[in-house]
Design brief:
By secondary structure, the protein is α+β, with helices and mostly antiparallel strands. Helices cover 19% and strands 34% of the residues. The strands form two sheets. Strands 2-1-7-4-5 form a five-stranded mixed β-sheet. The mean pLDDT is 97. It binds FE2/S2 (inorganic) cluster. FE2/S2 (inorganic) cluster binds next to loops.
Length: 94
């Protein structure tokens, strides 16, 4: 199991998820309010910022790279529906 800390404004959640779990699906299953629409990487709605543990996440998908520029990537932005976690991470929802 890995720990996923999620901050949405002033609220925090700490989830324990299986290694390799999808970030958006795990958050949604626990009613963590990450906005989403398509769940397939096309709408860009589920954007989050990985503030710690970026190296514990899956590589960027082509769909993520389509939605983001260099500044977004440097900030650790990800699409939650395209991100799988393999170690402890911290996430901020803008
Ligand atoms: S929910 Fe549409 S890109 Fe993630």
């Amino acid at each position: 199991m890995v720990k996923v800390n999620i901050q949405v404004e002033e609220e925090h959640w700490e989830l324990e998820v299986a290694e390799g779990a999808n970030l958006l699906l795990e958050a949604a299953a626990r009613s963590v309010p990450i906005p989403f629409r398509c769940t397939t990487g096309r709408c860009g709605t589920c954007r989050v910022q990985v503030t710690a543990g970026a190296d514990q996440c899956s590589d960027y998908t082509e769909l993520e790279l389509f939605h983001m520029d260099g500044a977004d990537l440097a900030s650790g932005d990800r699409l939650a529906c395209q991100t799988f976690v393999y170690g402890d991470v911290s996430i901020k929802v803008p």
